[in-house]
Amino acid sequence: MFNFCSRIVRGAVVQNKAANVYEYAVNMKMAMALCRDYFRAPEKDGERLLLEIVKYTEPVRPNRADARNLRPKSFPGFTYRVAA
């Protein structure tokens, strides 16, 4: 499924306008959902699938300064499971 979706996304043409600050790319999460729906639908139309995928775009922001906030998770105790 991932290979199919990746190939479809590479075939989708995203129009980048000169007035935009960022370059735009296809949102892979929505593309995967649309490809899954494409396989489930009895009437399959590849052109409609490409048009739907191009509707969901997101900006590509290189050199992001925001670091991920990763915190260590503590181990949940399972003492409540011990039979008395």
Sheet having the most strands: 2 strands, antiparallel
Order of helices and strands: HEHHE
The helix fraction, in percent, is 25-40%
Total beta strand runs: 2
Strand order of the largest sheet: 1-2
What are the segments in which pLDDT stays under 50 over at least 5 consecutive residues? none
* Assembly classification: single chain
Instruction: Sum up the overall morphology in one term.
Output: flat
Strand-pairing-aware structural class: mainly alpha
Radius of gyration: 21 Å
Tell me the number of structural domains.
1
Question: In what range is the share of β-strand residues?
Answer: 5-15%
Average of the residue pLDDT scores = 86
Count of helix runs: 3
**Between the first and last Cα atoms, what is the distance in angstroms?**
49 Å
Give an account of the 3D structure:
This protein has 84 residues and is mainly alpha-helical. 39% of the residues lie in helices and 10% in strands. The protein is built from three helices and two strands, in the order H-E-H-H-E. The protein has a two-stranded antiparallel sheet. Helix 1 crosses helix 2 and helix 2 (28-40) packs antiparallel against helix 3. The longest helix is centred in the middle third of the chain and has 13 residues, at 28-40. The model has no long low-confidence stretch (mean pLDDT 86).
List strands and helices in order, with pairings.
Elements (H helix, E strand, L loop, with lengths): L1 H10 L11 E4 L1 H13 L5 H10 L1 E4 L24
Antiparallel strand pairs: 1-2
Helix pairs in contact: 1-2, 2-3
Task: Write a brief caption for the model.
The model has no long low-confidence stretch (mean pLDDT about 85). The chain has 3 helices and 2 strands.
